[in-house]
Amino acid sequence: MYSLTVRDHFMIAHSLKGDTFGPAQKLHGATYVVDATFRRSELDADGIVVDIGRASEQLRTVLADISYHNLDEDPAFAGKNTTTEVLAREIFDRLVRAVHAGMLGDAARGVVSLCVTLTESHVAWGSYEGQV
Amino acid sequence: MYSLTVRDHFMIAHSLKGDTFGPAQKLHGATYVVDATFRRSELDADGIVVDIGRASEQLRTVLADISYHNLDEDPAFAGKNTTTEVLAREIFDRLVRAVHAGMLGDAARGVVSLCVTLTESHVAWGSYEGQV
Amino acid sequence: MYSLTVRDHFMIAHSLKGDTFGPAQKLHGATYVVDATFRRSELDADGIVVDIGRASEQLRTVLADISYHNLDEDPAFAGKNTTTEVLAREIFDRLVRAVHAGMLGDAARGVVSLCVTLTESHVAWGSYEGQV
Amino acid sequence: MYSLTVRDHFMIAHSLKGDTFGPAQKLHGATYVVDATFRRSELDADGIVVDIGRASEQLRTVLADISYHNLDEDPAFAGKNTTTEVLAREIFDRLVRAVHAGMLGDAARGVVSLCVTLTESHVAWGSYEGQV
Amino acid sequence: MYSLTVRDHFMIAHSLKGDTFGPAQKLHGATYVVDATFRRSELDADGIVVDIGRASEQLRTVLADISYHNLDEDPAFAGKNTTTEVLAREIFDRLVRAVHAGMLGDAARGVVSLCVTLTESHVAWGSYEGQV
Amino acid sequence: MYSLTVRDHFMIAHSLKGDTFGPAQKLHGATYVVDATFRRSELDADGIVVDIGRASEQLRTVLADISYHNLDEDPAFAGKNTTTEVLAREIFDRLVRAVHAGMLGDAARGVVSLCVTLTESHVAWGSYEGQV
Asked: Number of helices and strands (H, E) in chain F?
């Protein structure tokens, strides 16, 4: 199995609902460094998993729709607890749609799975991995 | 599949038995930076894999029982070669017991697997991954 | 010159005032990984710059007063633009007061300078360094 | 499942063929930081996946045959597009041959899979993982 | 003293002249991760050293003129040994010209020094620091 | 001012004397990742601060005399508290002697200062910097 990962980041404000979250129930924020890992069994005709340039561009596009937002007021997250794991899943879903829409090129439709990892500090990170 | 990782570290003295280990057969030591990765298919009601706070706390508790020890004289490791891999397995076992005992919260019982990675230098690390 | 650095982090919401900041004028947030570097010419009687345990503890204490805050509503930052540089200076000032108050131990009064670095993402960080 | 990873690096010149690669079609170069991850279900008699010393040595040997080369003129890569993914696969193949040849020791023949990751910058990396 | 650092990277081919360089006398290449650190005593009216956005943009512009080049054939480096140190100096010079030309904004003319660090692998990096 | 840094590591056992050190008064150990930064105002005739190959080799030689030792029984450290700071100074002294002895080449005698940083975990490091 081959993989190709690109990295970018976004910065948001939010609060988390539930006693579990202690002080994080207050409005605060985070920088998330995002790693998107695309996987496939065989490379395309160019010898790649996906085009790094296009993958970076699509990741940037997806993150631009979230970055500098107060997620508590972002309709896309209405009724959701915007934990690291939930955000990883949301970015996964948006990137999968971009792959299906051909935004990473026709060859990228050969990607079989994707893992999105969000690093929130030097001591904690979360991810979602699923089929594309 | 979702994952959540927390990081901590511990520092120990030990020696390794067997010609394979060359100079590491002498009493020396190491810092191990520990990453504990919890995985599950679906998030709990709060939208998380495990509570980061509790996971960090339990990891700290497990490591506190090993840190600053001379493992050559620690009964827990009697008759064992305390390689990076063996230590990763031991910490895995102790964290699994903590999950089963409810120390990470009731919801954390939904965790299906755990990977414990010990980084011993900037050029070498080892891990153990198994079912919870 | 000797130095000793300890690392911790905090997570806040804020907005920045001024056209320069573009989308960062909106309420958003950040994780700041904080490195506090203490310097002195000669070590103390124990052979250290400062006690790592105490330095980590004081850094944690200082950050606990800021972490999980919406800085736009924190009186401590009223009328200030809470840029990375301004936050580095504020944490510097609070740590210097802790040194002078003996919170890092009497020997730590031998520290001559301090550098506080705030990493806001994998591609940007800022710092303030000054005499203690 | 246990794993053991060792890290090293190599530096090469090359050009990539295909419109996909844009400016990377010109002769340029890269540093690749290489992580080789060996996996097996049970440890050997010494309590290890593979001997770190031998694994590091074999990785260095494999990379020495590529490092400081202009891959456009290296017969080993004739007719191949030397993308990060293709290079990861080539290094995988060479390390697998080393395992089979007993170069990592007899016990290392218990290794069941290997993952080779090549980091080409702080924002992009690729890998190949397969059975040994 | 305040500082602000932005990070980017470039990838080039080159060869180094002189017996000192051993195998690096052959045409090979490197990825350089570049950190540009701007310093000044007092912040500008917005509370910053330089605008992160503009600093990142100017660094990208400077690196775009070098990236994907074979430096052996780049007139800008004719007669120079393009070592890590020499490249750090060249990028320093180009960024200083950008500061003086007002490309980082008028306020950025208050910057008093700049340090450019080029990381060529996980085990080696070089820098040049000077007045602006 | 130019700089060139090389990185390596060593692993030791030791105990620290004094109430300040709490549990670290017991025999334990550490991995130290070592960065040696050489500085000079002007580059040598080859366009370098020091030869990376020789610098790496001398650092490895210096660390080989310490690595895998129990520092409590190493005569070189008799009567010394082997804190991170003290170890940084000792490695500094040994590297300076290597420079003066011409072990890094004649040109390296132009080095004016050296900084040795020892990273003991992901959250703490210490250094010593002085004239060569």
From this structure: 2, 4
State yes or no: pLDDT of D72 exceeds 90.
Answer: yes
- Cβ neighbors of D28 (< 8 A, separation 6 or more) are D13, D14, D15, E11, E12, E13, E29, E67, E68, E69, E70
> Among partner residues F22, F81, F127, which is closest to C2 by beta-carbon distance?
F127
- The segments of chain F whose pLDDT lies below 70 read none
Q: In Å, how far is F70's CA from the nearest CA of chain A?
A: 30
Q: Name the token pair of A33.
A: 């460094």
pLDDT per residue over A112-121, tens digit each? Answer: 999 999 999 9
What pLDDT does residue F108 have?
Answer: 93
For the segment E49-78, what is each residue's pLDDT rounded down to a tens digit? 999 999 999 999 999 999 999 999 999 999
| Of the candidates C117, C90, C94, the residue with the CA atom closest to the CA atom of residue C35 | C117
| Greatest Cα-to-Cα distance within chain E, rounded to the nearest angstrom | 52
> Which residue has 């990861």 as its token pair?
D88
User: What is the reported pLDDT for A61?
Assistant: 98
For chain A, give the DSSP string: -EEEEEEEEEEEEE---SGGGGGGGSSEEEEEEEEEEEEESS--TTS-SS-HHHHHHHHHHHHHTTTT-BGGG-GGGTT----HHHHHHHHHHHHHHHHHTTTT-GGGGG--EEEEEEEEETTEEEEEEEE-
Cβ contact E–F (≥3 pairs, < 8 Å) = yes
Question: Hey, is D17 helix, strand or coil?
Answer: coil
How many CB atoms lie under 10 A from the CB of residue A26? 14
ipTM for this prediction: 0.97
Contact exists between E and A (3 or more beta carbon pairs < 8 Å):
no
* Nearest Cα residue to B88 out of F112, C111, D2, E89: D2
Are the Cβ atoms of D11 and E29 closer than 8 angstroms? yes
Nearest to A11, CA basis, from B6, C123, C87: C123
Nearest chain E residue to B123 by CA: give it. E122
pLDDT, tens digit, 9 for 90 and up, residues B2-17: 999 999 999 999 999 9
| Residue A18 CB-density burial (10 A; 0-12 exposed, 13-18 middle, 19+ buried) | middle
Chains C and B contact (Cβ–Cβ under 8 Å for 3 or more pairs): no
- Indicate yes or no: CB of C26 within 8 angstroms of CB of A122: no
Q: Which residues pair with C6 in a beta bridge?
A: C36, F124
pTM for the predicted model, two decimal places: 0.98
* Phi and psi, residue E91, nearest 5°: -70, -40
Interface touch F46/E20, C-beta < 8 Å? yes
Contact map slice: D 4-23 vs B, CB within 8 A:
4-8
Gap between the Cα atoms of D42 and B47, Å rounded: 35
Secondary structure letter of residue C121 according to DSSP? E
Q: Is E124 on the interface with B (CB under 8 A)?
A: no
Closest residue in B to F120 (Cα–Cα): B31
Cβ–Cβ gap F4/E123 under 8 Å: no
Distance CA B40, CA B45 (A): 13
Query: How far is residue D72's CA from residue B25's CA, in Å, rounded to a whole number?
Result: 45
| Contacts with E51 from chain C: Cβ below 8 Å | 20
Q: In this complex, how many residue pairs, one in chain A and one in chain D, have their CB atoms less than 8 Å apart?
A: 55
Question: Whose CA is closest to B95, among B25, B33, B36?
Answer: B36
